[in-house]
Known about the structure:
53% helix
Amino acid sequence: MAWDFSTEPDFEEQLAWMRDFVKQEIAPLDLVFPHMDHRVPPPWLKSVVDPLKQAVKDRGLWACHLGADLGGKGFGQVKLSLMNEILAPYQWGPTIFGVQGPDTGNAEILAHYGTAEQKEQYLQPLLDGELFSAFSMTEPQAGADPTLLECRAERDGDEWVLTGEKFFTSNADHSAFFIVMAVTNPEVSRYKGMSMFLVPRNAPGVEIVRPTQYMGESDDAMGHPHVRYEDVRLPLDSMLGKEGDAFVIAQTRLSGGRIHHAMRAVGQAQYAFDMMCERALSRRSGNDVIAAKQMVQEAIATAYAEIEQFRLFVLRAAWKIDQGHGYSPEVRKDIAIAKVLSFNVMRSVIDKAVHIHGALGTSGETPLARLWQLVPAYGIWDGPTETHITTAARLILKDHVPSADLWPSEWIPARMEAARTKFADALEQRRLGESAVNA
């Protein structure tokens, strides 16, 4: 198999423009207007961010996450991965480029499964950056295991009645609508008995029970609330796709999102690595900079290798998708491993970066504090690391078979016997020749 992750020169120019743009125009937003990137901006902030969004649109780089067949730019996963790596270090980055989560995954669902009316009402405003959305799946008693979901939607005449509770519905308090996963047929497997619904945030019966923030985040940061649905009445056309299709729809959403998460991890790890190298070359210990210390050099070399290996792995997985493999078992295996590596590489690299910065690294005076807070989340987002390890192992083992008998297929005594049989004539000639010499 030949692998080619290269992109055309015109796109390389776009990436170069992005690198400069995010540093000069987006990075300052994180400092002056933190935690306002996932909500509709007030007029005074629109005057700041709208020109930046327009600059992105003028370059043809706005909302590039949908394929051409779904009304997007058709960039493909390799290009999207390279873009996400550049945007990842900055909270405002994805929003200014129209690729912020969870909206990207929700847009993909709507593009794939939404009706013309649903797309007009929800998808187009979402792609235009006029509103935000939430994905409501996880429940207090059910995290990564969808078979434990209890939130119900029951048919009542020409309406569905939604009842249940969801936990960690990201950005629910600033979203115009939710995509909610609910049980519609409790008599069958959850994998076949769940459906997806579009639920307006202001629908009667939708209640934000309490806000939840990531550890260390301020109260005004993007929340992940506990949401209660109390007899929420929805029209029949609020369903996304067919009844019972929720699990398939969710996998469509999550698989692409996991690739983007992985490449964001690459970008954030690279950001921490660059800070680490600068600090190692600047901070002194004794008569020299700490970069001259062998253990610091070992940390830098190891971190470099971890990031480069991870980047290539993610790009290869993205390339496979672009080559038409879709989300086949082969690709899902790589996506699962990329999810595991996201956590492992982030933890390893950022730990080294914090340590080399010393006391400053443990403070809130560098971006490392925010990156460090994200490390545990990378092990939980879109399912815990252990789940993805199990998934990958099952898919890997499908490509292998057990040995035919008691002994392994590479057991040397059996192979030696087979080899001697294969070369019996040559061995016999060798024996006769040696006998003649010794006679």
